[in-house]
Amino acid sequence: MIRLCVRVARDDAGVVLSELLELSPAGVEERETSDGVEYVIYGAAGELPQIEEVEAAAASGPLVSVSSSEIPDDWAERWKVWHRPVDVSWRFKRLRVRPPWEAALGDDEVTEIVVDPGQAFGTGAHATTRLCLELLLGLEPEGALADWGCGTGVLAIAAARLGWSPVTAVDNDPAAIDATRENAAVNGVALDVGLANLRDAPGPWAPVVCANLVRPLLLDVARLMDEPPRHLIASGLLREEADEVAAAFAVRGLVERHRRHCAEWSALALSVA
Fold it and tell me: What are the structural domains, with CATH classification, of the chain?
């Protein structure tokens, strides 16, 4: 197993992440460092992007370093220590996202979902996902919901467990589709999962939509939107990008109701005027 590591300045981390996800749509691991942010891609020899491709992608922001190293044979077990349960709350509602090797709380007042972080991008640990989950808890579950850019299916599964139905999940990455289906089965929820390219056409409509994407893709989503949902949760944004994205959706009749921040990231809750 090979570990490909990119370290960049914190202020430009979001831009670099967007570029890296084009090379590695199955996702990257993110860690804060003393001088910036570290992104890590894991894979077998021959399956990873070339270092030259990664350097070109990371050049969109001040590059600290790009390095490649082999992972010891016991990496699969040691890697688990980096993935701990994520707890999210909104007023009296509580939700926990945990990896399969962590025991259940056994607390009826906490909604738990199980996600394998080794499958695709999106485990609940990233700030953008936590912000989406918080805003989702702030809505009353009623009717259908669509998750545009589902990754491992965290948001879609959480929505189904909280009471939305039916729930649709789409992504442009076949690995994300497989991971979402597997995680849905583990959590005992029914999802309608399928491929969709949000750069070319609107996602499947639902009264409530979650879109944890990146700024360029969210702007495409706003541009292509023909019928706005009643409620939209949009994330994957740096703080300085939130105003631009909120304005793009305002053109479609979606008014910002809440904005939440975590570190340098932001999420928006919008609804029809």
Answer: 2-78 (3.30.70.240), 83-272 (3.40.50.150)
